[in-house]
Write a structure and sequence with these properties.
The complex is a heterodimer of chains A (1084) and B (259). Chain A has 1084 residues and is mainly α. Chain A has 43 helices and eleven strands. Chain B is mostly beta strands and 259 residues long. Helix content of chain B is 8%, strand content 37%. Chain B has a five-stranded mixed β-sheet, with no helix packed on it. Classes of the chains: A mainly alpha (1084), B mainly beta (259).
Chain lengths: 1084, 259
């Protein structure tokens, strides 16, 4: 090979790969370091959290410790503590000498035992072994020989060196054993004595320590030291809650380490020194609702069942919170936190029976009150119709069962007749008889179910008024104006805005008008409007209805605002409505699906009477709907008073009824079919009774598990991209924009919350940019909700989920708590809370009205029902709820509190709802059901005299405030008549009441402090009459027994003796009235 | 601080090689943001009021209109209530209005005052409260005495304090109570004698007065400064006046209420 010359620029010489290697190496190294970093931290962001936690929590605990020792000093300087400490020291000093003595003895004894033991155990081992040997020896001679050896061994004397250095000799084995056992017994005795001695000292010590723990606001310094040591020894690790049976794996606490710490941690306290709270500080705070955590132990419930999010994720905040596109159910946000409660507490109308202010409860109320279930099915929110269906099925089943039984009984009897033996025949006959008895039970069960059908028909209510009465009730020309935009006429109305065009309005009003009943209404003469106004404002109408607008608005939000009712309603109809809103124009037969008229009754020769007692269809005997399906009760006004109230109502208007433009087109029969089409299209029959549409189905989608719907199944239509990007807010209408709880969108809102909020703010929002015919446009009307209402409803919907947890996790109690659940449903249905306080702190509609302000106003409010179940006999409650006048004939009054202007109305509750309410109150107060009244002892003459002197003493002037039935006196009464106590009140409750009424009904006129505890008995605090000198029982009990035996005569006598001579004469002294006025005038 | 140490080791090469770890140093820089002014800084201890510079406000509250004739209260429903009694809601005579509560509403800033140790007495005698309008510093004890031979009950109906209602038989020991929160014209009534009514005014500072039958009042011991003085009457509402006090000033601030 010829040698080639070496080229210039030989790459081997001139080119170097070193730079490449260096760069590669740097990249490789960097990758390596990155990989290491990522392995340690990138994939484990929680480690950084835990390191940060360790630092901050330790710092926090140090400062907490100094504060804590300060407060410990405070606690320890209190006299109570000092006394306990003294007790402890005394006890330990008293016991100390003897304890010392015993301890010394024990020490000596132990040494002695040890000395004897070393000798004794050896010998005992030999004896045991020999004894075993003898027992197992088969030859008799050998046995005897061995026994002899053993006896000799036992006789040998032994010596042991005692602790004092002396040698003690034991003459034989028995003595050794006895000595040993004696020593041990002595030690046991002494130990027991020591225990006895130490016990009281320890008890005192425990009391002392408990006092510190009970009175420290925070933890004690030693407890804090414990926490600090624990924190400092912390090594980062995943913290997880794993509940296999519920498939919960939640690692949330790997970052949220403060959630369950025993001290309260706030974002400020967990901030780094002198810094603003950052994401760590916010993550380390304690759970804000400790009470909730107590009920829902995180070890059982985890975190995600309530909060949602991806509990398993550990690789990032977004992942764990589930706020990324591959996780379907992101963490509930702050305003909607209570959605988590709904997942298990769907059946509770009131989440916690002694708390107010739950957003979720508001959402549930809105869903019912605004009639959402008129269009949307929601499991559990159609109780009455669903129960009706199930009762019908049960009846069918029982009928079948009965038939089968009859047939089987026949067969058995036939068989019996032909039986071979008498025994066989008797046996078969017995079985047949048993079946007949069963059938009679089934018959009774069917009767029961029939009654509950009647109940349920009575319980069925509609959110909106009965449009069959449109012609009788309404100003014809007003209807189209109303339909245009109901909220323009009445801003707070439940009727939503349907965005109807003029043709639709014409057709719908024509259909409503032409399909309505035309029966004549009785004519009424005009009443006294001024008196009507007084009645309207005082009888309690404003607990549900409101009046006035803006600042002038007064009353409740449950029913309509009546400010303009005079423009639309006819006087005669209002009279009937005010007198008894349930009075129907014609009964409706659900079987025939028609309104039954006088002609139907006439055909059968029956009088045209229909009410709750006459509720059978004349044509086919089926149960009729005999009431208007409204929750409005009757206030038991006299016909005259009803005319007065109606006369007042028709004066409420902004313009004359005649000022509405003529709408005679509504009589055009050609519009009727078109109208029916639209009435159906918009689902009007969901809320209203409308002729011909009584059995209309619902038009909306079911919402029971709406919150579980994956985001892809919520149709954002053309706005999908806007929502994902968080582009400009698509809602432009300023009214609708103001409804968005979070304001106009600034960030992406492509999630369930964004969907619900936008939909509720502007229900046709997804039609934006679409070209659709009228019939295909979104139908959901605008409910003109406020921000807070939308937030509440969104919370409710977000929590409406298919619950993956086992059934045992869901709140479906079967005990008294179920009665509470069912009761709230009824209580909310009739707005009992418009007048009554059932939860401490809950405001009733009446409470905020000007009339009920000030100390005098408060006295005229309806009673609080905080302990109703403990207060009244359930039998009485049942009677009262049926007829609150407690009188069959004189009904224009209050049965219990005759002195109140506001009146407990008659709700015509069905048997079903009566039962639920009575059980509810009993359950709420945890009272046993059925209630067995306690025997009230009959007082002796002496006891009666004593009780009377107490009852009428100037120091306990009971009759000053309690009504007596004397009209002159009762004008200023503020408490019920004692004569009603018997049969109404539970004696135990009465005793509690007179001891501390403020604890039962805070703010009541009845003062506390009437009795005090003395020598383990309740005695009167004022000067007691002399006859009480040797009385050694509870004076409260005596007074209660006396009140329960009070007769009208006795009450009159006592009243007269108390200086009530003028009042009891029956004439109204002007002075009493004047004084009442002056007193009241002082405040208002 | 193992985490930080590791970060400092790993960060430079990682940054050098790949700009993958944009977020690496971010947290630290975020933490270095200037600290917000501490919100929890304790209020500077108030400089004690120097009695040598203390100023005084005096004044008269007038009633512009014919004095209403006080309604006579018939107390015959309780024979133990002796004597005559007239309604106390508007007490005016000679153009002067009594029972107006005058207090320093604004101007004392964050100054705190020690709660007076001595109790203020509220007496019930002749089925009437004495006084009818009472001022008390929040936390100060009100001692309620019953001098009548009949039982009363004391029932305040506050807006911002806790409500209570206690019975006080004749010759019973005084009831001692405190009100924790500021509240003006807190009505107190006796349910058994519906005409009995008085008002407690709970203030944060001890600078208050109640006008007497001559309409006069005096508030002493105020440090120099600008103040808003409020005049509150149970029926005729509230009026405010501004006043500037220099050291040792005695200024007159009058108010006039119309019926």
């Amino acid at each position: 090979m010829p040698e080639k010359p070496i080229p210039e620029n030989d790459p081997v010489v001139s080119k170097s790969l070193a730079p490449h290697y260096v760069i590669s190496m740097v990249i490789l190294m960097a990758t390596l370091f990155w990989a290491l970093w990522d392995e340690d931290f990138g994939q484990r962001p929680w480690k950084a959290f835990q390191h940060e936690w360790k630092d901050r929590y330790s710092t926090f605990l140090k400062t907490a410790r100094s504060q804590s020792s300060e407060s410990q000093k405070d606690v320890e300087s209190s006299p109570d503590y000092q006394k306990l400490k003294q007790d402890y020291e005394n006890a330990s000093q008293n016991a100390a000498p003897r304890i010392k003595e015993i301890n010394e003895k024990l020490r000596d004894l132990s040494a002695q035992i040890l000395a004897v033991q070393s000798v004794f155990t050896d010998r005992r081992a030999y004896v045991s072994a020999s004894t075993y040997d003898i027992e197992t020896e088969t030859s008799l001679s050998a046995k005897q020989r061995k026994q002899r050896n053993l006896d000799e061994y036992k006789k040998e004397s032994t010596a042991a060196e005692m602790p004092d250095g002396k040698k003690q000799t034991f003459k034989d084995y028995d003595e050794l054993e006895k000595t040993y056992n004696d020593l041990k017994n002595e030690r046991t005795q002494l130990s027991a004595e020591l225990g006895e001695l130490i016990k009281p000292v320890n008890e005192k010590k425990e009391l002392l320590d408990a006092y510190v723990t009970d009175h420290m606001v925070n933890l004690t310094p030693p407890q804090l030291v414990g926490l600090q040591n624990k924190t400092e020894a912390w090594t980062p690790k995943i913290l997880q809650i794993n509940v296999p049976e519920a498939n919960i794996v939640d690692r949330c606490e790997s970052c949220h380490m403060g959630v369950r710490e025993p001290v309260k941690l706030t974002a400020t306290s967990m901030s780094a020194k002198d810094k603003k709270p950052d994401e760590y500080a916010r993550a380390f705070t304690s759970h804000p609702e400790r009470e909730l955590l107590k009920i829902h132990d995180p070890e059982k419930y985890g975190c995600s069942p309530c909060h949602q999010g991806n509990g398993r994720a550990t690789t990032g905040v977004e992942k764990a919170h589930g706020t990324y596109e591959h996780w379907l159910w992101p963490l509930f946000r702050k305003g909607n936190m209570e959605a988590g409660c709904q997942t298990c507490h769907a059946a509770d109308m009131v989440l916690v029976s002694n708390e107010v202010g739950w957003t979720l409860s508001d959402g549930k109320d809105l869903f019912r009150q605004r009639g959402c279930m008129g269009c949307h099915r929601y499991e559990g929110y159609d109780k009455e119709p669903e129960d009706l269906l199930s009762v019908a099925q049960q009846i069918k089943q029982l009928d079948q069962e009965k038939k089968d039984n009859v047939k089987q009984a026949d067969d058995l009897m036939k068989e019996a007749d032909k039986a071979e033996s008498n025994e066989e025949a008797n046996r078969l006959n017995d079985r047949a008889v048993a079946l007949k008895v069963t059938n009679s039970k089934l018959d009774l069960r069917i009767v029961q179910l029939d009654r509950s059908t009647k109940s349920l028909l009575q319980d069925l209510k509609k959110v909106g008024p009965n449009l069959k009465d449109a012609r009788l009730k309404l100003n014809k020309n007003w209807i189209p104006v109303w339909l245009k935009k109901p909220s323009d006429f009445r801003s707070s109305t439940k009727m939503p805005n349907f965005r109807l065009n003029d043709e639709q309005i014409k057709a719908i009003s024509a259909y409503v008008w032409q399909s309505a009943l035309t029966d004549p209404l009785p004519k009424h003469k005009p009443g006294n409007a001024a008196h009507g106004q007084e009645l309207f404002e005082t009888r309690g109408c404003l607990a549900c209805h409101s009046i006035g607008e803006g600042d002038q608005l007064q009353g409740g939000t449950f029913a309509a605002n009546l400010t303009r009712v005079g423009e639309k309603d006819s006087y005669d109809y209002l009279v009937r409505w005010v007198h008894n809103a349930r009075e129907r124009t014609r009964p409706y037969c659900p079987y025939e699906k028609k309104d039954i008229g006088p002609e139907d009754y006439k055909k059968k020769g029956l009088p045209y009477i229909f009410d709750l007692e006459h509720s059978r269809c004349p044509n086919d005997g089926h149960e009729l709907q005999v009431q208007n399906m409204t929750v409005m009760p009757s206030l038991r006004l006299s016909p005259q008073d009803a005319e007065d109230v109606a006369s007042y109502l028709v004066t409420l208007k902004k313009q004359e009824a005649s000022a509405y433009a003529d709408a005679s087109f509504m009589d055009d029969p050609n519009l009727k079919p078109e109208g029916k089409k639209w009435v159906r299209h918009f689902g009007c029959a969901g809320c209203h009774e409308i002729s011909g549409l009584e059995d209309e189905g619902r038009i909306g989608t079911e919402l029971t598990i709406e919150g579980s719907k994956p985001i892809e199944r919520l149709d954002f239509a053309l706005l999908t991209e806007t929502a994902q990007r968080g582009g400009r807010e698509p809602i432009t209408d300023p009214d609708d924009l103001a409804r968005l709880p979070e304001g106009p969108a600034k960030q992406p809102w492509y999630d369930q919350k964004g969907f619900f909020e936008h939909k509720l703010a502007e229900p046709n929002i997804w039609d934006q940019g679409k070209d659709k015919p009228e019939t295909e446009k979104l139908r959901m009307p605008n409910l003109h909700l406020t921000k807070e209402q939308i937030r509440a409803l969104t919370t409710f919907l977000l929590g409406s989920q298919e619950n993956p947890l086992p059934a045992s996790y869901q709140y479906r109690p079967m005990d008294y708590r179920r009665d509470i659940q069912e009761g709230w449903w009824v209580v909310k249905k009739y707005n009992c809370m418009g007048c009554h306080q059932l939860i401490p702190g809950q405001r009733t509609s009446l409470m905020s009205m000007a009339r009920y302000q000030g100390p005098d106003g408060q006295e005229t409010l309806p009673p609080k029902l905080l302990t109703e179940g403990a207060r009244v006999d359930p039998e009485w409650l049942l009677r009262f709820l049926k007829n609150p006048a407690l009188n069959g004939t004189d009904t224009n009054r209050n049965g219990v509190r005759s002195y109140l202007q506001v009146r407990m109305p008659t709700f015509s509750f069905s048997e079903n709802e009566l039962g639920k309410l009575v059980r509810f109150f009993q359950a709420l107060a945890r009272q046993p059901f059925p209630y067995i009244p306690e025997e009230v002892p009959v007082l002796t003459t002496k006891e009666t005299e004593m009780a009377r002197s107490l009852f009428s003493s100037t120091a306990a002037p009971c009759l000053k405030c309690h009504a007596t039935g004397d009209p002159a006196h009762d004008r200023t009464a503020t408490a019920p008549n004692f004569l009603q106590a018997r049969g109404r009140l539970k004696p135990d409750w009465m005793e509690r009441w007179i001891i501390d009424p403020q604890a039962i009904s805070p703010g009541t006129s009845m003062p506390s402090g009437l009795f005090k505890r003395e020598n383990d008995h309740w005695v009167f605090s004022g000067p007691t009459p002399p006859s009480f000198r040797d009385y050694d029982r509870d004076q409260t009990k005596l007074l209660v027994d006396y009140i329960l035996q009070l007769t009208a005569d006795e009450q009159r006598r006592v009243g007269a003796a108390m200086g009530r001579a003028r009042a009891s004469s029956g004439s109204a002294p002007s002075g009493v009235q004047a004084s009442g006025n002056a007193g009241r005038g002082g405040q208002e | 601080m193992k985490a930080k140490k590791l970060l400092t080791i790993y960060c430079p090469p990682a940054m050098l090689g790949l700009a993958l770890l944009a977020g690496c140093g971010k947290k630290e820089s975020a933490e270095e943001q200037p600290a917000a002014p501490a919100a929890t800084a304790p209020a500077a201890p108030a400089t004690p009021i120097d009695p040598a510079t203390a100023a005084t406000i005096i004044g008269v509250v007038k009633f512009d209109g014919p004095a209403p004739k006080a309604a006579v209260i018939d107390m015959s429903q309780d024979p133990a209530c002796k004597g005559t009694n007239t309604a106390e809601n508007v007490m005016a005579s000679g153009g002067h209005l009594a029972n107006v509560f005058v207090y320093v509403k604004e101007g004392l800033g964050s100054r705190t005052f020690e709660v007076p140790k001595e109790a203020i007495t509220l007496d019930q005698s002749g089925c009437k409260y004495h006084p009818h309008v009472l001022g008390v510093v929040a936390g100060q004890t009100v001692k309620i005495v019953n001098s009548d031979p009949t039982t009363h009950n004391i029932h305040p109906t506050p807006k911002d304090n806790r409500e209570w209602n206690e019975s006080q038989p004749p010759q019973a020991a005084p009831i001692e109570k405190t009100f924790a929160r500021e509240e003006i014209m807190l009505p107190v009534k006796c349910n058994q004698h519906p005409w009995m009514r008085m008002f407690v005014n709970v203030t944060k500072n001890p600078f208050y007065a109640v006008t007497g039958p001559d309409g006069k009042f005096e508030i002493k011991g105020l440090p120099p400064g600008d103040y808003t003085i409020a005049f509150v009457h149970e029926k005729l509402g509230e009026q405010e006046m501004k006043v500037t006090l220099a050291a040792k000033d005695t200024k007159t601030v009058d108010a006039t209420f119309k019926p």
